[in-house]
Automatic annotation (TrEMBL):
This is Aldo/keto reductase. CDD domains: AKR_AKR5G1-3. It holds the Pfam family Aldo_ket_red. InterPro entries: AKR, AKR5G, Aldo/ket_reductase_CS, NAD(P)_OxRdtase_dom_sf, NADP_OxRdtase_dom. SUPFAM superfamilies: NAD(P)-linked oxidoreductase. The lineage of its organism: Bacteria, Bacillati, Bacillota, Bacilli, Bacillales. Residues 20-262 form the NADP-dependent oxidoreductase domain. PANTHER family: 2,5-DIKETO-D-GLUCONIC ACID REDUCTASE, NADP-DEPENDENT OXIDOREDUCTASE DOMAIN-CONTAINING PROTEIN. Signal peptide: none annotated. Keywords: NADP, Oxidoreductase. It comes from the Bacteria. Belongs to the aldo/keto reductase family.
Length: 275
């Protein structure tokens, strides 16, 4: 059982990554993101997930500084945006992200989307950043099986993480199985289905365990070995999302959530995305 917010998974290069993080997509730069980061760190979170495209790396950096927590205790993720993909431009984009965040080393750097014809050059740049010690781990986001096969073929380093849309209505079994066989850690974005939680089974389980629907889903993810990064700017909700380490879903109840899969995406489809 995953028993504590400080719990982590070990990536295939030995780096430890917290099982729970704060996502800051659509969180405004400035006070909103600064306060969300500080609230989450206060609530015990040690992982923050941002991206160049979110436009809030500056605020995340300020929040980290003002939190008063030692840098080595935190796990910070950011991502290279589609327009910056390619070898030299990725190295440049990384430097910009690093400056905005005010950090010498990024814990995890991801390719945000698999931009056709570019992501392999982008990956070579990621490998360089990793070898240079500028990043502790490198990975991808929104990569399907065929993208992963393409990247792995002819690369020196297998991605350590694949961050994908994943929740009970989009369980991604085939992709998860591929990642597992290549020791790629799966991380879920939009684990809370962008707030679409009014599902009878979910309501019933929330009642049964005396937890919120959000807590039930996050717990389900953790029990499947998935890293979760729920997004919130509300301090109370941030704390609530972290209160998932004092109960366990039974195998039967977890299976009820597995059965909700409809391959339904709330976000874009990586194979049909207008890059």
């Amino acid at each position: 059982m995953t028993v504590s917010i400080t719990e982590s998974v070990e990536l295939h290069n030995g780096i430890k990554m917290p099982v729970l993080g704060l996502g800051v997509w659509k969180t405004k730069d400035g006070d909103e993101v600064i306060n969300a980061v500080k609230s989450s760190i206060q609530a015990g979170y040690r992982s923050i997930d941002t991206a160049a495209a979110y436009g809030n790396e500056d605020g995340v950096g300020i929040g980290i500084k003002e939190s008063g927590i030692a840098r080595e205790e935190l796990f910070i993720t950011t991502k290279v945006w589609n327009a910056s993909q390619g070898y030299d431009s990725t190295l440049q984009a990384f430097d910009e992200s690093r400056k905005k965040l005010g950090l010498d080393v990024i814990d995890l750097y991801l390719i945000h989307w698999p931009v056709k014809g570019k992501y392999k050059d982008t990956w070579r740049a990621m490998e360089k950043l990793y070898k240079d010690g500028a990043v502790r781990a490198i990975g991808v986001s929104n990569f399907q099986v065929h993208h992963l096969e393409d990247v792995i073929k002819g690369s020196e380093i297998v991605p350590m993480v694949n961050q994908i849309e994943l929740h009970p209505r989009l369980t991604q079994l085939e992709l998860r199985s591929f990642c597992q066989s290549h020791k790629i850690q799966v991380e879920a974005w939009s684990p809370l289905m962008q707030g679409n939680l009014d599902i009878p089974v979910l309501v019933k389980l929330a009642d049964k365990y005396n937890k919120s629907a959000a807590q039930i889903i996050l717990r389900w993810g953790l029990q499947h070995g998935i890293v979760v990064i729920p997004k919130s700017v509300n301090p109370k909700r941030i704390q609530e999302n972290a209160a998932i380490f004092d109960f366990t879903l039974s195998a039967e109840d977890s299976a009820l959530l597995d059965a909700l899969n409809e391959n339904h995406r709330f976000g874009p489809d990586p194979d049909n995305f207008n890059f």
